[in-house]
Amino acid sequence: MKFVAWRGLSDAYRSAVEGHSPWSAADHDPQPICMRDVEQAELPDSLRHAIRTEGIGAVCFIPIIEGGRLLGKFMAYFDEPHDCSAEQIEVARTIARQLGFGIERVKAQNAAQRLAAIVESSHDAIVSKDLRGIVSTWNRGAERLFGYTAAEMVGKPITTIIPEDRLGEEPLILGRIRNGELVDHFETVRRRKDGTLVDISLTISPVRDASGRIVGASKIARDITDKKVAEAKIQDSERHLQDLLAAIPAAIYTTDRDGKITYFNEAAVQLAGRTPVIGTDEWCVTWKLYWPDGTPLPHDQCPMAISLREGRPIRGYEAVAERPDGRRVPFIPYPTPMRDAAGNITGAINMLVDVSERKQAESQQRILLDELNHRVKNNMMMLKSLLSVAARTSKSSEARTVLDEASKRVAAMAAAQRVLYDTPDAINFGAEPFLGAVCETARQMFPPAVQLVCEADPIQLPNDIAMPLALTINELLINAVKYGLPGNGHGTIRVSIRQNGRTISLAVEDEGPGFELDSVRSSSSGLRLVEGLVRQIGGTFEVGRHPSRCTVTFCQMPQEIGLATKSSDT
């Protein structure tokens, strides 16, 4: 409690005892409390000291009450011990009752003034009427919305602003009001003074008198013309969007944030072989799902479910849908979350691209490539055999050397072709199996004492450099065997393919003294061939000593392909 009026009390005393009350706020109908002698009363030491310093001998606390509710307290102080008589207490209570009545009346007047100010300043139309529909009050918001002044409407029926085709609404509204019902957010149309119609939203509440009897209604009307226009635009936009989605040949559907299907186009029905059930089906329109390898894919683990859980688009997956008739359709999904203006996920949209025809084309292409590779392989082996026979039967040592080198080159190309033939990737090959195959083929044509150590990073390279790279390795190995081993033909040759960022390096290292490229270029057809092959792949060729090493550096990254499948860690 705070002091609001006093006489004869010091500032120090008021500061010391302010906030003290002998009753709690929850007490109902509290009674007066009199202390005839404060020195004998049980009080905290700090409060007793403040009272003694003020020179107070006795005090009487009279509660200020209205309707049994504690509003404050009226206090009478005496400078010496004093017994308050019943008449004095009753006088004090009478004063307290008058104070309570005055306080409540002031509060009610203030509340009424505030309410009137709120009603008058409200942008919404606020109207009251009796149970016959006669207008009692009409604020400025109603004047702005309907064009009638308060003088024109007060005392007139509310049907003045109701169009003829909606006059039946008023009896129904008044009937609900008589039953004590609230009519909330009732959207309708009313007529302005100039005859134009306006879309409004009504909230109508019963008005009761002091006894609780319903005597009328208060009405709040809000202009929703802009809302109606916005809703019409949204509906037009949604229809336009659905028309666009329906026209797209790919299967498209949407879900809410919990994964329930909310929309699907006809293409989705055709792909799934069934009509999805909106609000029931979850995550996908399909009946059953599988990974490309045939492993079952639960719907709650499909890309759409992952997209909603993680809040991000999912790309790079392929799946298979099984229709109710048993037919399986491979497809690529493109699930993407949808968000509201605040960034919260409201659902997701997914497009399923049927890749059945492409799969068939790829299978046919694979068959043709396999046949082509098989024929190329056989032709290379036949060419190598012919060259080997020609080298063995030739009487010219120079011819035998040339034919033998040509046979080794064809063998290197055949080794590279085997790697390309065996890889499932149509446009890239692995550096590790490629280097192993080329080195193994070369090893078979070298003396048994020659050791080849081959190492390659697990990287992918484009197919169009396979043949130039195989021939380069073959030439460098032949050169290392000829000139990089001791006189007894024993030794180790190291071959490596390494990646450093976007740069790839091929290195052939032997145990010989090395050589200067410029001094031997004119006399070595093999090195001239290597330089030509390196230029073909856009690389550089360097020769170093200590150790003796030939290095080819190039930048050939694997080519991208458009189809991705399930990763091994999914």
TrEMBL record:
Keywords: ATP-binding, Kinase, Nucleotide-binding, Phosphoprotein, Transferase, Virulence. InterPro entries: GAF, GAF-like_dom_sf, HATPase_C_sf, HATPase_dom, His_kinase_dom, PAC, PAS, PAS-assoc_C. PROSITE patterns: HIS_KIN, PAC, PAS. Signal peptide: none annotated. Residues 371-561 form the Histidine kinase domain. Residues 111-166, 237-276 form the PAS domain. The keyword Secreted does not apply. Its EC number is 2.7.13.3. Residues 184-236, 315-367 form the PAC domain. Gene3D superfamilies: 3.30.450.40, Histidine kinase-like ATPase, C-terminal domain, PAS domain. It catalyses: ATP + protein L-histidine = ADP + protein N-phospho-L-histidine. NCBIfam families: sensory_box. This is histidine kinase. It comes from Mesorhizobium argentiipisi.
